[in-house]
Design goal:
Oligomer: single chain
Helix content: 40-55%
Number of strands: 14
Strand order of the largest sheet: 3-2-1-4-5-6
Number of helices: 10
Shape: globular
Bound molecules: 1,4-dihydronicotinamide adenine dinucleotide
CATH class of the largest domain: Alpha Beta
Largest sheet: 6 strands, parallel
């Protein structure tokens, strides 16, 4: 067994938290030989519920769970952490204006960014799940000036996995036989699920489905899948979101498969004409714990228009939160 690493999870008593913590503790994220110490952050009123979750974690007697810290203090939650999954956020409520949503999340992600800056390991890997995920990640990043900006990422992996599942269903293949799907841009309905480089059983995906299905069914289905789950379940995606968060962190820690890539929202470095300054969904590969944006892909006019639309939305979100950035 290796030495334990510290993994922070915020919103730990929420529904994604409940689907996530047990899998991290069981070794699904970092492997069966990597013990973890969980650092769980909640708001004060949720601490009793969180205590119940801690009791259940202990009752699982996981060989890979080396300890649990449960707190309502971000400075304690992020102390020396190697990984941070920021799940707790303020989703849009009825009648809530966009400005109110961004303000409410600023009040969460600015102090959490500062606490990470002050207390986390210098190579901490941060994944923001709480919506609006890309812009919440940007707020946290901009309040952590002493950390490498590349420490901050947001989750588009659920969208990526949803794209795999839709394409598998359509072609009769297994998701494991599909490679090189990309989610560009924002984790919102402007995201662009791109199949131009994708293959199914080694052959180009777009030669196996017709363009009308791709444009008029596949893209909107992936974009609207979150809403469809809410309609069916009466609650937002939780187990699939937790599973995607584990996939994102596992690939970041242990690497992507040879001959494939994944989708992660990472700080733009100017690739594909996206100006630096937003957290943008890109095709990425990971090697030796470092991610790299896949370069040199041909982008046709169909794709470019959709990449531009999601870029525009992220820039507008950024303009709405710039006052929350540390000076
Ligand atoms: P939930 O409401 O069940 O749980 C959220 C938890 O966060 C609550 O227990 C709440 O007390 C806690 N919380 C709120 N403010 C906090 C703070 N400042 N510090 C620590 N904890 C705090 O929500 P659920 O279903 O677990 O979803 C969490 C977030 O994930 C939502 O914003 C949701 O929209 C988002 N989400 C993102 C997805 C993605 O693909 N990026 C997919 C699905 C959900």
């Amino acid at each position: 067994m290796k030495a334990p690493v510290r993994v922070a999870v915020t919103g730990a008593a929420g529904q994604i938290g409940y689907a996530l913590l047990f899998r991290i503790a069981a070794g699904d994220m970092l492997g069966p030989d990597q013990p973890v110490i969980l650092h769980l952050l909640e708001i004060t009123p949720a601490l009793p519920a969180l205590q119940g979750v801690v009791m259940e974690l202990n009752d699982c007697a996981f060989p890979t769970l080396a300890g649990v810290v449960a707190t309502d203090d971000a400075n304690v939650a992020f102390k020396d952490v190697d990984y941070a999954l920021l799940v707790g956020s303020r989703p849009r409520g009825p009648g809530m204006e966009r400005k109110d949503l961004l303000e409410a999340n600023g009040a969460i992600f600015a102090p959490q960014g500062k606490a990470l800056n002050d207390h986390a390991k210098r190579d901490v890997r941060v994944l923001v799940v709480g919506n609006p995920a890309n812009t919440n990640a940007l707020i946290a990043q901009q309040n952590a000036p002493d950390l490498d900006p590349k420490c901050f990422t947001a989750m588009v992996r659920l969208d990526h996995n949803r794209a795999l599942s839709q394409l598998a269903e359509k072609t009769g293949a297994h998701t494991a036989e599909i490679k090189k799907v990309t989610i560009w841009g924002n984790h919102s309905s402007t995201q662009y699920p791109d199949l131009h480089q994708a293959s199914v059983k080694g052959k180009p995906a777009l030669e196996q489905v017709d363009q009308t299905w791709y444009a008029d069914t596949f893209i909107p289905t992936v974009q609207q899948r979150g809403a469809a789950i809410i309609k069916a379940r009466g609650a937002s995606s939780a187990a699939s979101a937790a599973s995607a968060a584990i996939d994102h962190m596992r690939d970041w820690a242990l690497g992507t498969a040879e001959g494939d890539w994944t989708s992660m929202a990472v700080p733009s470095d100017g690739s594909y004409g996206i100006e630096p300054g937003v957290i943008f969904g890109y095709p990425v590969t990971v090697k030796d714990g470092k991610y790299a944006i896949v370069q040199g892909l041909a982008i046709n006019a169909f794709s470019q228009a959709r990449i531009d639309a999601t870029d525009k939305e992220l820039r507008e979100e950024r303009a709405g939160v710039e006052h929350l950035f540390a000076k």
